[in-house]
Amino acid sequence: QKKRPCLNYHINRCMGPCTGDVDAEEYRDNVKAAVKYLRGDTGDLLDKLRQHMQEYAEKQRYEAASVIRDQIEGLKELAKQQRTTAGIDDRDVIGLYVDEKDVYVQLFYVRNGSMVGRADFELNRGKSTSSEIIAEFIKQYYQDSPVPPEIVVPEMPPEEKVILKWLSEKAGRKVTLNIPRIGEKKKLLDMAMKNATTAPTYRRF
Q: How many CB atoms within 10 Å of residue 167?
């Protein structure tokens, strides 16, 4: 049964499985392919997407073709970001933007030297400083999430030693907090900070 298209469909972020623009099996295959790409298994994914885009265009399914086109561009951009992490092992990178009322956090996941994903969070600032916000975010997020060997932060949280002890006990190994000044880690932190800064603009739409 067809349903009304969602907002993501209208802004070309969804291929439209609910509306019947793409069948469930094809949509599932595309999701699986995207997951493989995020894990670093690029294979022939881009070629496959280009083939799908061509097929949609030939069938005059131009909206579906445009979604595939945007996916291709997004994957190319992600590949560029992954290359910036070459030589880096496992770590999380925390970017932060604080305005008068809210806090926007951008979290990058780097695994086996590649950025495999990211997440964003919007928090209430209250009267906390940025370093206090980092401390609170770390304590809340890693309460139920895997702890990597290293967490890259823009500034050190208060009670750094207490937090490190808690993280290390949860992980069962030594965990470090790091503020990079140069190199690839610094580039990745800058990217996370930039993404956090632009988050308020995207959330208004």
A: 21
Domains of the chain by residue range: 7-83, 91-203
What is residue 15's predicted lDDT score, i.e. its pLDDT?
62
Which H or E run includes 121? strand 114-124
Distance, CA of 49 to CA of 199 (rounded, Å): 28
Q: Hey, is 43 helix, strand or coil? A: coil
Q: To which residue do tokens 């969602």 refer?
A: 6
CA distance 14 to 63: 10
- Note the pLDDT tens digit of each residue in 48-74: 888 888 998 898 888 888 888 888 887
Distance CA 53, CA 173 (A): 47
Give yes or no for a contact between 148 and 88, defined as CB atoms under 8 angstroms apart: no
How, if at all, do strands 150-152 and 176-178 pair? Answer: parallel
Question: How do strand 102-111 and strand 91-98 relate by DSSP bridges?
Answer: antiparallel
**CATH number of this structure's domain 91-203:** 3.30.420
Separation between Cα atoms, residue 83 and residue 1, nearest integer Å? 43
Q: Are 63 and 163 in contact (CB under 8 A)?
A: no
